[in-house]
Specification:
The protein has 324 residues and is an alpha+beta fold. It folds into three domains: 73 residues, no CATH class; 124 residues, Jelly Rolls (Sandwich); 76 residues, 3-Layer(bab) Sandwich (Phage tail protein beta-alpha-beta fold). It has seven helices and 18 strands. Strands 1, 2, 3, 4, 5, 6, 7, 8, 9, 10, 11, 12 and 13 form a 13-stranded mixed beta sheet that branches. Strand 10 and strand 11 form a beta hairpin. Helix 1 packs across helix 3 and helix 2 packs across helix 3. The longest helix has 16 residues. The protein is elongated. The termini are far apart. It comes from Massilia atriviolacea. This is DUF4880 domain-containing protein. It holds the Pfam family FecR. One of its GO terms (molecular function) is sigma factor antagonist activity.
Length: 324
Amino acid sequence: MSAPIAPIAPISPRILEQAAAWLVQLHSGAAGDAERAACARWVGQDPEHARAWERAEALMNQLGGLPPALARPVLGRPASGARRKALAGAAGLLVLLPAGWLGWRMSAPAHRTGSGERRELLLADGSRVTLNSGSAIDVHFDSAERLVLLREGEILVSTAPDQAGARRPFRVASAHGRMQALGTRFTVRAHASRTEVAVLDGAVRIEPAHGAALTLRAGQQTSFSAGAAAAAADTVDAAAWTRGMLLADKMPLAELLAELARYRGGVLRCDPALAALPVSGAFPVGNPRETERALAMLAATYRLQVHTRLGGWWTTLVPAKKEM
């Protein structure tokens, strides 16, 4: 018979209150290096302080960037309505297995955006993550690392120094491997067979699950599978989507429509004869109304017609009829 698992010892309510107070102070907008250093000293004074800070960060992240003061009622043990409501948002918190990613898609993500929705999260360490349309992430901070799990879609990450002063690495994980931020801003997009990364500032170390590591510098991008990363290439405004724009440079029309479809419901396609038509330009995206403007621009520029059926749910681009 296996030995019973020892219950996790409760943390003193007083220490939990102190951890919550540090969160409030560090995210008040007025905290500086002195306050962050003081928090780091407090965390390092006692292992219970470190446990409380780890819990506070996790709950802050699961609350999706809400004001840290709202975390106060849920840091302690007493069961209350406010605590139960806040803890419900933490149900999807995942723990990354050291051996790989088995089962990482089995529970619901903590943060998700719908079609045509963008959302910015303020994480417990002061870092920011912007989710593009149709994206999903989990956030897991512990004593060893700060981790964002990208389930699907696309994100922009702007890292901040570790608020606790512990110098924990900031990593993003996808189904194909990990990316470690080296003081940076970067975008990550998950596809079924690969992950795309573009570095805007700083550098990012890419570690495919089963391949050699690669470091990208500002202005570079690449894609990688679980087995290998492609050579670095120059990037062109990889974060245009955060401003509601889609940039195309001789992009096949079918590929462009697939991008636009991420921001609207229904089916968006083109006549097979137009699939390879090279398209260039800057097109508005972000919600269905903006994608309608983009389709109108395509029709006017490339002499196309937009045919809609089923109340606009099924949209097809076809060659414009020749004038007689």
